[in-house]
Design a protein that fits this description.
Largest sheet: 8 strands, mixed
Number of strands: 11
Number of domains: 1
Number of helices: 2
Distance between the termini: 34 Å
Bound molecules: zinc ion
Helix content: under 10%
Oligomer: single chain
Shape: globular
CATH topology: Metal Binding Protein, Guanine Nucleotide Exchange Factor, Chain A
Strand content: 35-45%
Radius of gyration: 14 Å
């Protein structure tokens, strides 16, 4: 039996389940992730699409298609339209790999969300130091 984790947005309109372990947990310091999260960085875990199930509030989810990314690909950023919580993200490379990127701050159990990858380190806030053994990339 796969381990089950659950998560929800701040207002709890949207609830989801995560079955099994994340494939990767990525911290991203890019400007878009800072703007979308409203914070210093995003810490998201990549799950197999089949392991991510929205169990409540599908109609409360809105998706913003971010164009003009460095890669030129559209980044689909999904959030709760009631409380604004960032929930999950999708882009072509992830989709083709059968993965979805879920925000770790909305997970009920965050113990599996240790970073295994840190990207856009050259954009990292000056005051910020993260302690992990994962791979660090200056850009993407
Ligand atoms: Zn909400
Ligand atoms: Zn980013």
């Amino acid at each position: 039996m796969p381990a089950l984790n659950t998560g929800c947005c701040l207002c709890e309109a949207v609830k989801y389940e995560l079955h099994g372990k994340p494939v990767k947990c990525a911290v991203c310091h890019c400007d878009s992730c800072q703007q979308f999260s409203g914070s210093a960085f995003m810490a998201n875990c990549w799950y197999k699409q089949n392991d991510f199930k929205i169990v409540r509030g599908r109609d409360a989810i809105t998706t913003y298609d971010e164009r003009g990314t460095v890669s030129g690909l559209i980044m689909k950023r999904s959030f709760c339209k009631i409380c604004g919580s960032s929930l999950f993200q999708q882009m072509t490379q992830l989709q083709e790999a059968g993965l979805v990127s879920v925000t770790s701050g909305t997970m009920d159990d965050r113990s599996d969300a240790q970073p295994t990858l840190e990207i856009w380190c050259r954009n990292r806030r000056q005051w910020l130091t993260l302690d992990h053994q994962g791979e660090k990339l200056e850009a993407q």
